[in-house]
Every structure is written in C-alpha cells, then in structure tokens.
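Lecture 7 notes. Example A: sequence first, then its structure tokens.
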Amino acid sequence: MKIGKFSLNLTAEVMVKVSKEVLTLFGIIVTGDDPDFDEMAVRHELLTDPAPRVRTKLSLTDQAGRTELYECESAGDGEEPVSAAFHRLVKLNFYQLLRRCCGMPPAPWGILYGVRPVKIVHRYMERGMDRAAIERRLAKNFAVTPEKARLLTDVALRQRPFLLSASAKDVSIYIGIPFCLSRCLYCSFPANLLPNEARLADFMQVLEKDMRAVRSALTRYDLRVQSIYIGGGTPTSLPDHFFAALMEAVGQNFYSAGVAEVTVEAGRPDSMSPGKIKTLKDYHVTRVSVNPQTMQARTLKRIGRSHTPEDVVTMYHDLRTAGIASINMDVIVGLPGETRADMADTMAKLATLAPDDITLHTLALKRGSQLKMNLSETELPKDEEVRAMYAIARESVARQGMEPYYLYRQGYQSGQLENVGCARPGAESLYNIQIMGERQTILGIGGAATSKIVNPRTERMKAAFNAKDLKSYLENIDTYIEKRASLLAEAYE
C-alpha cells in the first residue's frame, strides 16, 4: 500500500521509530508516486490515570478527499515502566488500527520486535505465570499469534533446566575466525576472504595473545568454562596446519574435563579435509555444524557455493565415521528461486542422514549482502510461499524427533518468521541456549567477536566488541583486551 503523506503528532525519536516499524511490517510506503491514499494521520494521547494508557486516532484520506476516522485505546499491565508501556501501547494501537482500516492480515509475531523474544517468556515464568497465562499475555500485549506464542513457550520451557542449573562461575568461550573461502549471496557477516599465509600467521599470533588474556582472567576470577564455540566466518577455511594450531591453542588455554561442549562451525564441504577431521577428534570437539543451507544443486550455484549436495553427504559421513558425537545442519528457508517442492526434497535428504540438530533459518535481507544490494535482479519466493516452505521444514524435523530449543529473529526476515534450532532430546547446544538467554558470561576472542559479561550480583549484562575488520583487530588488540578486562573486573571483583 502507498500513502502520499504520513503525519504523527509524537515527534520523539522512539515514537517515530515504532511507527515506522509498523508501516514496514505491513509493507506500507510513503510516496508521492501514485499513492492509494492521499494521507494517513495518526494522533496518540498519552494518559497515566491510573495506569499508562494510550488513546489513538487514525484518519485515512482517499484521493477523492473523503476521510475515515478510526479510534482505539489500550492500557498497560502495571508491571512495566511507564515509558516502556507508552512505547508498546503506541505501537499496539497503530498495529490494531492498520489492521482495521486497511484490512491487513495479522502478522505472525504481532508487534513483538527484537532478536530474543524468548527472554520475555522467561521473565513471565519468573513471575510465577503458567503456560496459559503467558500465552494470553503475549496475545494481549504484543498481538502475537497463538502459534508463535506456543512456540515461544515451548522453547522457554525446554531451556529452563539448562539456564537454572548453570553456576554464576560458569562461562562460555566464543572464538571468531573471520575468514571464508568465498562470500555467499545472502551473507553480511563480517568475514574476509582467506588471506595469504603471512597474514594468517599475524592473525594467529594476535589470536593467541587474545586467548592468553582470557585464560588469565579465568584463573584470576576462578571461572569455569562450560562450552566453547569456534565460529566465524568458516574456521575450517584455515589451511590444515593453521587449523591444527588453532585447536591446539584452544585446548591448551580452555579445555578441561569440565567442558561439556566444544563446537566447530565447519560449514561447507569445500573447507573440510581428512587432516581437519583428525584434528577435530584429537582436540575433543563434540559438536560440528555442517551447513548445506539447501540440498538443491542449482540453488547452491546461485548463492555462490562451490560444492554439491553430494559433497555435503560425503562430509557428513566422514564426520560420523570419525566419531563426532553431535552434528548440526543449517537450512535456509526462502532462498532465491526455491519452492515448496525444493524444501521438501532438501528436508527428505537431510532426514536420511539423521543429524542430531537442525537449525531452520528464514532468509533475511541483510544490509551489506550481495542479495540486498542486487535485489532487483533476484527472484525471491513470496511470503506465503516461504511460510508454506517453513511449515514443511518444521513438520520434517518434528517427524525426526526434534523439538525447538532456541530461537531468534532478525530484521527483514522472509515471511515475517524466525530462526529456530531444533534438536533431539539430549542434543541441545548449551552454547546456543546461553548466548540467546544472555544470562551467562560469554567471552569473545578473535575477529568480530563480542564479549557479553553478566554481573552475578546485579544480573546486568555489558558488552565489549572486537573489531569487525581484520586490520583493526590486529592493530588494536590491546585496546580490546583492556576493555574486556575492565568489564570482567567490574563484574567479578
């Protein structure tokens, strides 16, 4: 839908932002180019008697000059700060009025916005709310559909034992290897094409310095490593001897009998070798991610992958033969040119492999990706098709005995959906649960890594970021180490 002019009586930046989010949610654009309506005017009245309330009026003027007026009012629940309540109610009212005046269908996630919606459910649980009350609250406060409310609650319930059993002294380690053999069409991750050996040697030297600094902090504050996650980029894009050196350094600095999980993102078959598989076993790796994204050969070529579905199968079997305990596989729903039949075929092929964990991503149009920059040249499935494809994938993982255990959302996801990790009972990734829960300190090492340090006394989290570009990371490592050390001292001294 096109609107010639949009006016809002609240000019605060956050109020403008939440209004734009709702317009984007329904695909409404403001343009003077052949609009469907001349003007949409929204007026919010903020009230605080006795609790936060917002009264909203929306007027919609057509090209003949006729104006229709719509009104609604919503109240806060008394458990959120006044300012937060106002922001939510402004957004909720605008969402409800657009659905009423323009006949818009409900959005799967309503007005719930943000990367980690499961955290809201955990907060409700800690207030003593049961499943039914939580799902009603999600519908009332955020207009979340029943299906997504059930999904959020399912995920939270599955996570609770892991989150509640962790000690304040438990931490996880993330090591970022910011290199790939090539850049996929949809990718916006801060990864560099694999540099020459001299540059790799420089990186490894700085990376080991970064590791030693974290090792020293673990000793100083008597912290225990629960899980280790080596991601990127594609860590296995490193040449064999550099990959072996990486894993040796990880083992020396962080591995002990108390480490419950060691994950390596292997990603693509063209990055794997017999030498790397041996290294994975030698250094206690318990979980490997094999990420085909699709098992359709033409799609792999279209998105810039230089391997075949058969290569994925070979890599998978090689890892199983080597005795890797848990294998995750990633799938992207909504890739260019794909259909329901393609998704059904991909999921059937993965089912024959019997992985322990499948993560279902829905395609996100990310700033900086080739896909986003060249969108006009790419045919993407419509939202309705993406939702049907996603349903096929969810049904497939359920038939394989997998249940959802972690979930996150991104901006501009196809079908207005989510990314969800599904695993067989006992195969849940501890790291994935903790990084999404933001209740455990995650110490980030390497390029583009983030440290999220949770103060055990206040339960407040603060973050420190390593540079995304390789040059800055190498040249300013002391600055990043110092920032992380400062936050650790604040939390644990």
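Example B, a different protein, same format:
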Amino acid sequence: MRDFQRIMVKSSIKKNYILNLINTLTGLVFPLITFPYASRILFAEGIGQVQFFQSIIDYIALCSALGIPLYAVREIARNRDNVPTRSKTTIEVLLLHVLLTFAGYIIVAILAVTIKKIEVNIPLFLLLSTTLLFNTIGVNWFYQAVEDFKYITIRSLVIRLFSLIALFLFVKTPNDLLYYAGITVIANVGGNIFNFIRLRKFIQPNSFSFREISLARHLKPALQIFILNLTISIYVNLDSVMLGFIKSEEAVGYYTAATKLTKAILGIISSLGLVLLPRFSNMISNGEFTEFKSLANKVISFTIALSLPLSIGLIFMSPILINLFCGKDFAPSILTLQLIAPIILFIGLSGIIGMQILYPQGKEKIVILATTCGAFINFTLNLLLIPRYSQYGAAIATTFAELTVVTAVIFFGRQMLPVHFLSKQNLHYVIGSILIALCLCLIQYVHLPDIYELITGILISGLVYGFYLYLNKDIFIIQTIDTIKSIITKRFQHE
C-alpha cells in the first residue's frame, strides 16, 4: 500500500497530463513511423484488410467490455482511499470482464466461419482478436483511476520501442501481413500483461470477504456506459466496416491513412481527458464544486486553444502530410483528410464536456442522447454517401456526426455546464487560428520541398499563434513562459 500512497501524494493534474501526453505522443509517433513504412510495403489493400478486421474486433471488444473501463475509472476514483472497497471493486470488475471476454471469443469463432470476407484470412482475424484478451487482463482503468501515469508511460515506451524494432526486422514484403498485425497488437495492448502482474501491489484480497463479491451490482451502471460507448463506436468504426462491405479494402486503406493522422492529433487532446476523469470524479464525490467549476472552464479553454489551430493546420497541410507519410499512391486520402479534419475540434470539445464534465456528475443519459443522435446521423449519411463517394462520403458522414454530438451535448447539458464558451480568451484562439490559416496559405506560394514546407509551416504558424496570444496576455502562454523561466533559473542556481 505504500506504493499507492506515494503515487497519490505526488500526483498532480499538470504532472499527470505531461506524463499522459508523453505516453500519447509516443503512441502517436509509433503509427506515424510504422504506417508510412507499412503502407509502402503492404499498400492500400493490405492496410485496408487489417483495418477492416480490426474494426470488427473493436465492436466485439466493445461488447465484451460492456462499458467496464470507463465505469471502473469513476468507481475506483471515488473509493481510492478506501482499501477494502477499492480492492473488492477491482476484483469484481475484473471477474466480470473475464466472463464477458469468453462470450466475446464465441462471437469471434462464429464470425470467422460464417462471414466470407473474414474466411479469406482467418489467421489474420484470430491474431487481431487477441486484443480482447490483452484488454481484459490489462486493467488500464485501475491505473487511470489511481492516477499512476508514470508507470503507464514507462511501460508503454518500452513496449513501443520493442515493437518498432520488430516491425523493421520482420515486415519486408506484402506477404508479411500477419507480422504487421501481430506487431500492431503488441504495440497497442501487449504491455497489458505487466499491468496484471503489478496489480497485486495495490489490492488487498484479505481486506474483505469473498462472500461479499457481487458481479451483478456492476451490470446496470456498466450497461449504461456500454450503450454510450456503442453509439460512439458506431460512428468511430462503422465507416471502415461499411466501406469494407460496400466498397473495398482499398477504399478502407485510403480512409485509414486519413484517420491515422487525425487520431494521432486527437491523442494529444484526449490525454487531458484521461487525467481529468478520476480527478473530477473525486472532486464531485468530496463536494469540491467551486474547484470543479474553475478547473472545467480552464480545461475547455485549453481544449479550444489546442484543437482549433490543429484542425486548421491539418486542413492546409493535408497534401504534404499524405505525401510524406503515405506516399503518392495514397493521393485519394488528401481530400479525405481535409474533410475529416474538423473532428479534432468537435471530438475535443464533446469528449471533455460529455465524459469529463457531465459523466462525473452522473449525467450519462445526456451524453447517451447526444451520441445516439450522432450515431444515427453517421449511419444514415454513410448509407447515402459511401456508395457514390466512397471514402469521401465516409469522411463527410463522420464530420457531420461529430458536429451533431458536440452541438447536442452542449444544448442538452447546458444547465450542468459551469463553462463560458463565448469568453474573450476563447475569441483570441479563433483569431489566432485564422492567422495560422493565412500563414499556411502564404507558405504554399513559396513552393518548398514537402519536408521543408512542413517544418516551415509548423514553426511559423506556432510562432505567430504564440506571439498573438502573448500580446493578449493569454494565461496558458504566460504560465508556460513562467515555467520555462523557473526551470532555467533553478538549473543555473544548481550549477
């Protein structure tokens, strides 16, 4: 238990965010290195087949998880200082997840022998299905709940480095598709086995009686989260599934190239959310509503400050990014990326508002309603647009779905949101993003080589955006500068 106490004493939102951001960024770097390499070896068809199968597995994983990860973070965060309750809840949730995973593998077996598009490569499908096992034993929800982000980060760095080396050693021809799939699984969830082994440091099975174990009590609240996750997953993974069935694996490959880049950037935004959920849940449980309101406003402003310029930058830099990371054979992915880029802002806001502000307050129904609206829009537009516009139609459907979600979650949850969207601070982020767009437009007329245009665009846009915010005394810029000054001063004093 000393390990647990040490973690909680040292934890802070800023530190946890930095650690989780490092973890996320390394997770982003991995596909940004591996995907350009793999796309040139496996081509759009090979990449598309892996993504098509993975999208199906993701649905099975979603069903077998039954909303457990998110539910468990909230419940353990609420009781993290109560050793018997924390231990009992952890074991109950883990056992429930194990039972549901067995059911998930029954579904895997049925699909493998009944779906023709899966029968063409059953070994690949089964290999990707190991994600179910690793997700179950990983208990990532526990480490998030207790805010042990240092361990999560170090573990992930080691696993991803190993996976990166393995990729270059074993994936050399189009016939190495299984190797690529296996390495991808290990990179994403392979480290979860260490989570399971380490869990014994934080729970005390002897602190309660096993006669008190009740799996049923977790079913109803977890099921509510499952409905929420299912609706979210519909417009997250449905695009690839419908593209695979209606069009081809090649179309899935082009779409995947675009979504890989958006997901990479979204990871930067979502890092904050993973840190905030346990902290917000604990604040509300302890009645710290003033602190909750203040932190919520800061988080929304920070999300806009990051996601809006990133969305704008991605739209203008799409041709360069696709050419550099995927190659000229993926030219159809350029427009796809431009069409889907706004979801960085939409998902950034809806994720923070829905899952980090409303959900800790017990307002799951509002989030479910909003995401259901988004799922309906996504499915309908996919059905209408994919047959005619292929991956472009899927991108349009996803963007409109995410816009629907963020609009709905703000509208239905407005009375529970201690947030001021139309603040002067947020207006500066809009103006700063417009300046970024102007800069990137001007840089395109210089006609630099792709890599130099990318670097120049990032540097100039970042400097212009940062300088504009500094002139307007933006709190995040001022705090960043003060932190850098403090680090430099301490270093010189130490020397």
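Note on Example B: The chain has one domain: 2-199+213-421. DSSP finds 20 helices and no strands in the chain.
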